[in-house]
From TrEMBL:
Protein name, per record: Nuclear transport factor 2 family protein
Residues that span the membrane, as ranges: none
Organism of derivation: Kitasatospora nipponensis
InterPro entries in alphabetical order: DUF1348, NTF2-like_dom_sf
Amino acid sequence: MTSRPPLPPFTEATARQKVQAAEDAWNSRDPERVALAYTEDSQWRNRDVFLTGRAEITAFLRAKWERELDYRLRKELWSFTGNRISVRFEYEWHDASGRWWRSYGNEQWEFAPDGLMARRYASINDLAIRPEDRRLRA
């Protein structure tokens, strides 16, 4: 069994490390890399989509980044306790027609003792933006 430090229970410093690691992984836009942070049977809610397990997570992320082009994300620690972390985030992307979007949301994370994420619940809203209003750039 592989562990994914830092491990719960989290301190403010280790919660911030988890949030930064997640931001870095998601900005890689590598579905396989991102999926390795989750337990084999991880449960997700992403907007109105419910997923279970790494295979479903990987497929979901692959489709996401085929549709959400030039994706760039920022996460911010909101709160933490024991084996749970809450974050707020925003990301920007454009669709195939070139229209830019900023997506805002909150995530609730629950971790297994080995530091892998067992549950991720995300609520997300999208806002159309002009290209000149972008804030997140590579």
